[in-house]
Amino acid sequence: MKSAWNCFVIILGAVAIACGFNLFLIPHHLLSGGVSGLSMLIGYFSNFNISTMYFTLNLPILILGWFKLGKRFIGYSMLSVIVTTWLISIIPVQLVVTDLLLACVFGGVLVGFGCGISFRVGGSSGGFDIVGSIITKYRDFPVGNVLVGMNAAVILGVGYLSDDWNVALASMASIYICGKVLDLIHISHIKVTVYIITNKTEELLVKLLKIPRGVTKIKTEGAFSHEEKDMLMTVTTRYDLAELKSIIKNTDPHAFVNIVETVAVMGAFRKR
User: Fold this and answer.
1) Domain assignment of residue 45, yes or no
2) Residues 61, 131: contact at Cβ < 8 Å?
3) Considering 185, 208, 242, which residue would you say is the last residue of a domain?
4) Is 46 left (phi over 0), alpha (psi -120 to 50) or beta?
5) Which pTM was predicted?
């Protein structure tokens, strides 16, 4: 059931991406980021089909990701690329809005939403998303920021070839919006430290260690009551925080919990 739900979310993300392309970006000759932007760039200045180029350019990156990121992630990414390619070819290119600024904003939001929910269920929309995931696997950077940085060459390309920097800068704004929306949805790079003061230490530990995250047990004493209790400390991601809070609430509703955002983590920390 979970795999079926994940596939549904991936397909929904592909629909959002394809609509962002064909209804907002392509009619104004705007670019998306990464491989899709390269596909558009080639399609605008040649007779090649954008959907065909999108699939062709994604293929070697998917193969690279298969060896670097695992079969499950790339399997979902392949599904996204195939469905997006098909939808780009069948959804008619229509001028929904005439204003360039509105087109870049709503196009960026749709593409960022599609990429974000794909990442959220353990996949991607292919292209530079996979390259960004390889980088963030070894370096703890937000995926959206990585993608924005890698798209600079694509923007310079459209500005140089079209000699229209209005389109180039609007494309840059769209890519920036896309990256920010992606980071709002895909939040596994944000770390939090959770402090839990509880009377049900062992019951909590049994459930918390299944997430799995490392947990440190610290003996504490109340300054006023002088009552001894255990404090559990763990570092997790914003993505896993909802599950962790549910575990605490169901196991010990009276536990005192303090959650603080973590600036950085050194040492052994399991990334998704």
Assistant:
1) yes
2) yes
3) 185
4) beta
5) 0.72
- Which amino acid is located at 27 in the chain? P
Burial class (CB in 10 A: 0-12, 13-18, 19+), 148: buried
What pLDDT score does 230 carry? 85
Rounded mean pLDDT of the chain? Answer: 83
Position 125 pLDDT exceeds 60: yes
Please give the single-letter amino acid code of residue 210: K
**Total domain count, the chain:** 2
- Cα–Cα distances in angstroms (integers) from residue 72 to residues 6, 76, 245, in the given order: 11, 6, 27
CB 110 within 8 A of CB 102: no
CB 173 within 8 A of CB 108: yes
Q: Can you tell me the distance from the alpha carbon of 22 to that of 89, in angstroms, rounded to the nearest whole number?
A: 9
What are the structure tokens assigned to 155, written together?
């923007």
> Is residue 145 classed exposed, middle or buried when 0-12, 13-18 and 19+ CB atoms within 10 A define those classes?
middle
Residue 20 tokens read as 């962002």
Spatial distance between the Cα atoms of 164 and 179, rounded to a whole number of angstroms: 23
Do 151 and 203 reside in the same domain of the chain?
no
Domain end residue (candidates: 170, 185, 200): 185
CA 236, distance to chain mean position in Å, is 17
Is residue 64 situated within a structural domain? yes
Assess whether pLDDT exceeds 80 at residue 219.
yes
18 domain residue, yes or no: yes
Q: Phi and psi for 72 in degrees, rounded to 5?
A: -65, -50
- In whole angstroms, give the CA distance from residue 264 to residue 261: 9
| Sheet arrangement for strand 256-262 | 215-221, 228-237, 191-198, 256-262
Q: What are phi and psi of 121, to 5 degrees?
A: -100, 10
Domain check: are 13 and 134 in the same one? yes
